Amino acid sequence: MARKTIRSIPQERAEMPVQAPDLRRANFDEVTLGFDQGNALLECERCLMCPQPACVEGCPVNIDIPGFIAKMIQKDFRGAYDHLTDSTLLPAVCGRVCPQEDQCEGVCPVGGSLEPVAIGRLERWLGDKAIAEGWKKTSYIEPNRFRVGVVGSGPSSMACAADLAKAGCAVTVFEALHAPGGVLRYGIPEFRLPNSVVDAEIGNLEALGVEIRCNTLVGRLFTIEQMLGEMDFDAVFVGTGAGTPKFMDIPGENLNGVLSANELLTRCNLMHADDFPNHDTPLGLGRRVAVIGAGNTAMDAMRVSLRLGAEEVHCVYRRTDAECPARKEELHHAQEEGIEFHWLTAPVEILGDETNRVRAIRCVQMELGDPDASGRRRPVPIEGSEFDFEADTVVYAIGTSPNPILGQTSSIRLNKWGYIDTDDDLATSLAGVYAGGDIVTGAATVILAMGAGRRAARSIRRYLGIRDSEVVYQPERAGFDGALFGMDLAEQNFTHIRQL
Amino acid sequence: MSNRETNGEPGPGARSDDSHGQPEDLVTSGFPILERTDFSDTTFLLEILHPAMARAAHPGQFVIVMADDQGERIPLTIADFDRDRGSVTLVIQAVGKSTREMQARCRAGGELFGITGPMGIPSKVSNARKVICVGGGLGVAPIFPQARAFKEAGAYVIGVVGFRNRNMIFWEEKFREVCDEFIICTDDGSAGIKGLVTDGIENAIAAHGDIDEVVAIGPPVMMRACAEVTRPHGIKTMVSLNPIMVDGTGMCGGCRVRVGGRIRFACVDGPDFDGHDVDFDDLMVRLQRYKPEEQEAMDRWSEHCRRLAAAPATTIDTGSN
Fold first, then answer.
1. CA-closest candidate to residue B78, choices B131, B5, B138, B1
2. Nearest CA distance, B117 vs chain A (angstrom)
3. Contacts with B255 from chain A: Cβ below 8 Å
4. Could you give the count of Cα atoms lying within 13 Å of A457 in the half-sphere of its Cβ?
């Protein structure tokens, strides 16, 4: 085969069918409908098969992207899927929610002069095909007698659990809510990531032998220390996320009709408030919804509000669209659906009516001043520019802070912001306890959390002495008596060096 | 917030060598209902099998219950726990659609779809020497484990509980066992003293000049009234707040309350707060948030029940899902 060049490949991206904005704003079906096989193969042809692929480096979990695309070109879809899932457990999820433009697609050389290869869409197509065909990886895994407990069932936990299960550990995942998936379940809405996809990916995890236990609030039902002690886990991974919503502490915040994006999304995605009263959880948004913030969560909250029947949805953001932290594609979709954006606008007070329901927000116009610590130009209020803005519901989507429960119930060391303190290997201050994802870094993306979960799994394997999937090596010194230089190892928390 | 408790210290001695299965008593789905007792036509008790929770629970904590997979997540204060039987007890007032549905469907031998907990910071059983434990309405049951904990800690415990009338009274014997004095208040005077729990508190304060602490659990109006009664005497008064919440783990922020001018989340910062600092007006306003939706759900449920009653061949599902 002649070597492909930028001139010889198809110049245009294969077409991705999308639901029309005026249709989709009234339903919870997916916005982008996915490639068909013909389009997928067409898009595969656009890959240059670089000998030193930048995309692999650009991927937080280092998926061998040309590798799976090569198998797709040969129409070996099963082989391509197996190759893909060596690196990622959740192709159908990541193909949908990864910010590919900043990762694999951002560094794709094709993107120098054309649109980069639509790697995310190919990944999604393979993931969806696997779900439709019922493909599972059922390779035999030699059990290694180690037990690992995983706290939380979001993306970092799922990635960590999968890698450890593949190494032969007996993995149990504990989830506080009644359904697993973490942010994939309660946060990301149905039209971006259908629950059926989350269910399928969780099914893959269970097929690896991972046990998932819901309704289990670690910290309060039992502590991390108890997991390592009487519950007999050899190691623990903590992936509890950064789920506590922030508010601004402006007047009127406790009025009825003011809520966090987390609450709105949880009521809708997890509790199915969109189906009230068949499901018991209400939401009651009213006619006009104003969302404060312009990140991905804000976009989700706004687009959910539209689909729940709000007549007008407004975005209030104190900087401009250039600084808006949402993915460009999400912003674009939101604009197409008719959401009104008010840039350089900051709320100063929420106004209520005589029944203490939200009536309006008082905002002030901003202008951009000198750059701040983040390098972005700092918004400063323009004096005398206050104006009132009618709204029935005000949603806060201005970020989250770490969940306090583990800090309250365990001696694990936190940093000054309340996130779990780890070293480069994601080891915490407790021996045998590793952490990753938003609870370490603060709010980030699904794929970064998955990358952290995989990194923690590597560290846990090393900690347990598992060099590869089958072989467990003896401790190097025979007759190890548990004391080293007069230190009591148990006292120093070296409790997990075991004779094999 | 210095509640850093570690119940079981890890250590090599704690390991049992080859028990590689889960602890067998860790129930995490399909929670069996062991017993049900009806105290009145609105109040009933459910005893749920959950040994791990019974071991972990402390007075003042709560659980989130889902009766079925389409239900709401309902926060309920733990009324009692029995570590020997491996059970937790909930006392439920059928006031809204979800709790009425539970009243109609939950039977001994059935199961709950979900129960998660214990949640919240356990009540601090201070070393007060003389305490008044006040319960009214929904709060009568959950004040019991607090009274017992104070008794076990060596305090002189005065129990004050309020009921509408003598027919509503429950757990009198249980309370008398752990209280040095026990005052029942009824609205109509059909038992104990005629009046509200605040009258009971005033009587107790009048009789004892040395009350160190008051703990009050009940409807917000009652807790506010209790806090106002003790404020002039400068007696520390702890209350247990019950705002609307979804997840109960600090994630939704629906349960935010104003305490001492600051926003706190009742689920992870509470549910106990100093009653003299709580903004009860704010709490009561926020409890009204879903009134129209609650009414709609209630109307639908009443209609559903009316239809079932009109069709005698159909029996109410005993709720095994």
1. B138
2. 6
3. none
4. 26
A215 and B116 within 8 Å at the Cβ level: the answer is yes
Task: Give the single-character DSSP code of A270.
Answer: I
Rounded-to-integer distance, Cα A293 and Cα A343, Å: 10
pTM above 0.95, yes or no: no
Dihedral of CA atoms B44, B48, B53, B54 in degrees, nearest 10, equals 80
**φ, ψ (nearest 5 deg) of residue A381:** -70, 145
Q: Per the CB < 8 Å rule, is B116 touching A186?
A: no
Rounded distance, CA B9 to CA A227, Å?
10
Instruction: State the pLDDT at residue A162.
Output: 87
Query: Residue A466's pLDDT is what?
Result: 80
Query: Which pLDDT value is given to residue A198?
Result: 86
Say if the Cβ atoms of B288 and A223 lie within 8 Å.
no
Cα–Cα distance measured from residue A258 to residue A269, given in angstroms and rounded to the nearest whole number: 18
SS3 (DSSP) at A286: coil
Residues A7-36, mean pLDDT to the nearest whole number: 87
Q: pLDDT tens digit string along A427-485? A: 999 999 999 999 998 888 888 888 899 899 989 998 998 865 433 323 334 444 443 44
- Enumerate the residues of chain B whose CB falls inside 8 A of the CB of residue A410: 4, 6
CA gap A255, A253 in Å, rounded: 6
**Closest Cβ–Cβ partner in A147, A244, A263 for B246:** A263
> Which residues in A lie closer than 8 A to residue B71 (C-beta atoms)?
279-280
Rounded Cα gap, residues B98 and B92, in angstroms: 11
Q: Which residues in chain A touch residue B66, judged by CB atoms under 8 angstroms apart?
A: 178
Residues A458 and A464: their CA atoms lie apart, in Å, by 10
| A40-70 pLDDT tens trace | 999 999 999 998 999 999 888 888 999 999 9
What was the pLDDT predicted at A301? 93
Interface probe for A, chosen from B252, B268, B304, B321 (most Cβ of A below 10 Å), is: B252
Q: Do A266 and B251 touch (CB under 8 A)?
A: yes
Please tell me the distance from the alpha carbon of residue B261 to that of residue A210, in angstroms, as a whole number: 46
Using the beta-carbon criterion (under 8 Å), do B249 and A176 form an inter-chain contact?
A: yes
Per residue in B45-82, pLDDT (tens digit) is 999 999 999 999 999 999 999 988 888 899 999 999 99
List, in sequence order, every residue forming a beta bridge with A349; answer none if it has no partner: A362
Going along A31-87, which residue ranges are E strands? Answer: none
What is the SS3 assignment for B29? Answer: coil
Contact A244 B56 (CB under 8 A): no
- The answer to whether the CB atoms of B28 and A215 lie below 8 A apart is yes
**Cβ separation of A178 and B289 shorter than 8 Å?**
no
